[in-house]
Amino acid sequence: MIKNVVIISDLSNADTGGTAVAVDTAYLLARNGLNVYFFSGEGKLDTRLTASSKIKIISTGQKHILYDKNRFRAFVNGIYNLRAARALKDLLGTLDPDQTVVHVHS
Questions:
Q1: Higher pLDDT, 103 or 44
Q2: What are the backbone dihedrals phi and psi of residue 93, each rounded to the nearest 5 degrees, phi first?
Q3: Cα–Cα distance, 75 to 87 (Å, whole number)
Q4: CA atoms within 13 A on the CB side of 97
Q5: Which residue(s) pair with 4 in the sheet?
């Protein structure tokens, strides 16, 4: 039985279409009793994510690569973001794979 949903999104504020879908999905799944883990790279939070105790927010607190003044770092993180990979691995290691679905948005 599915108890946990990990939603992965570049952003955590519903300024764009894909992020709006991710935030709405998290809110509705939590409202229906599932444990939701909202994983994102940027820290600005949509109010719907903080409205439910069933939503746990995991953010790497990084700048969006478009706004990172260090263009080399932005380039590298755009290809493979080691900090995000480690944080996601740590999160998934705490969840039962038989009870967890991972849903990716970008």
A1: 103
A2: -65, -20
A3: 20
A4: 3
A5: 35, 100
DSSP 64: P
Nearest alpha carbon to residue 38 among 19, 57, 64, 25 = 57
pLDDT at 15 over 90: no
Quick one: pLDDT band at residue 45, thresholds 50, 70, 90? Answer: confident
> Domains of the chain by range and CATH?
4-104 (3.40.50.2000)
The predicted pLDDT at position 63 comes to: 83
φ, ψ of residue 100 to 5 degrees: the values are -130, 135
pLDDT for residue 16 is more than 80: no
DSSP 94: T
Q: Measure CA 6 to chain center.
A: 7
**Residue 62 in tokens:** 């990084």
Token pair recorded at residue 45: 């939070």
**Nearest of 18, 104, 10 to residue 64 by alpha carbon:** 10
